Amino acid sequence: KAAAHDASCIFCKIIKGEIPSFKLLETAHAYSFLDIQPTAPGHTLIIPKYHGAKLTDIPDEYLADVLPMTKKLAKILDLDVAGQAGVGYNLLQNNGKIAHQEVPHVHFHLIPKRDEKSGLI
Ligand code: 5GP
Ligand code: ZN
């Protein structure tokens, strides 16, 4: 069985609590925390608790926790309120250096989009 963690990986260290993070949600197979260099307030990273650089490296049982967690976060962060204009979000996941991936542990970016005129910032 492949190792779930890589001792030198920054996101594996975050999962294990070896380096600090602003945690939002955690399940048996997924973990989410605020991005240290947010492109918007509330920019969140959702990661499987399994070390792998690309989406195809991650077993489905780990990925199965990622999207339900992302849905919960969209609600918690007030990005997905029925009938509310001026608010939304982008979900982004980079695979490979050529695709701007910097950290080689799969992560989904949840990036809030809020209209400045909405008064929600
Ligand atoms: P990538 O370009 O690989 O898709 O994005 C990596 C993301 O991880 C970047 O947005 C970067 O700010 C974030 N990041 C890198 N190191 C850390 C860290 O130690 N803590 C946190 N919270 N985010 C990090
Ligand atoms: Zn890792």
Automatic annotation (TrEMBL):
The active site is at residue 107. One of its GO terms (molecular function) is catalytic activity. This is Adenosine 5'-monophosphoramidase. A motif (Histidine triad motif) lies at residues 105-109. Residues 10-120 form the HIT domain. It comes from the Eukaryota. One of its GO terms (biological process) is nucleotide metabolic process. The lineage of its organism: Eukaryota, Fungi, Dikarya, Ascomycota, Saccharomycotina.
